[in-house]
Amino acid sequence: MKNRTVAYWLLFINAINLVTLIAYPYMLFISFYMFASSNTNDYVLEYIAAGVLATYPVPVLASFTCWAFYKNYKFKTALIMANLILVWVAVLLLAALASTLV
After folding, report:
1. d(Cα 28, Cα 54) in Å, to the nearest integer?
2. What is this structure's pTM?
3. Alpha helices in the chain, H assignment, sequence order
């Protein structure tokens, strides 16, 4: 191994990402109910949340490219790519927070 610590972190992060993909179909199905419970006429935040949930597998699959960076000794870039999913989680949390404030 080139860098054991980075390799173990990449394995751990990718394992968590794979586990979350198991619950993805259920969460996508449940996300359709966001529109049914809304009592406002402003659906922008609901559309953002639904879009984030619909595109969730994209960053999970893109995070597996971290191994290409690991192979080329770009360890910081590999860790950034492995944590790419955090961007989607942050947008989803911000949309949820903004919808409660509106």
Report:
1. 6
2. 0.75
3. 4-31, 44-54, 57-62, 66-71, 75-82, 85-101
